[in-house]
Amino acid sequence: MFIVTIIVTILSAVTLSISAVGKLTKMPAVVTSLQGAGVPLNRFPHLAALEIAAAVGLIIGLFWWPLGIAAAIGAVLYFVGAIFAHLRVGDTKGVNGPVVPLLLAIAALVLRLLGN
């Protein structure tokens, strides 16, 4: 079971990292999506920092479970917030982006909770 936890955790951390890089490099698709949700460009580095912190926390959490649980909870809340931000402004197409990372974060959290 721990092997599945490792795989899901790494996939979640990689997804968070890719998302952070997209914000830091201001990839056009990311800029369009986030601006569609009403996020100003000057907030991109803050959002990327949260994603990087969650990714690092998930990886370290494989060795120290309390941090892994906290990081997974943070990632879940982050992506739930992203979905609400898109829905708040009526951007139903933008909701698709955070769904997969949210599901990975939920899976990482559940697996980590089951492993303790």
Tell me what the structure shows.
The protein is mainly alpha-helical and 116 residues long. It has one domain. 79% of the residues lie in helices and 0% in strands. The chain has 5 helices and no strands. Helix 1 runs antiparallel to helix 3 (44-60) and helix 1 packs antiparallel against helix 5. The model has no long low-confidence stretch (mean pLDDT 95).
Helix content: over 70%
Oligomer: single chain
Average pLDDT figure: 95
Indicate the proportion of strand residues: under 5%
Shape: elongated
Number of DSSP strand runs: 0
Kindly, what is the distance between the CA atoms of the first and last residues, rounded to a whole number of angstroms? 11 Å
Q: Give the number of domains.
A: 1
**Number of helical elements:** 5
Fold blueprint:
Blueprint (H helix, E strand, L loop, with lengths): L1 H23 L3 H9 L7 H17 L4 H24 L7 H19 L2
In short:
The protein is mostly helical. It is 79% helix and 0% strand.
Key phrases:
single chain; 116 residues; mainly alpha; 5 helices; 79% helix; elongated
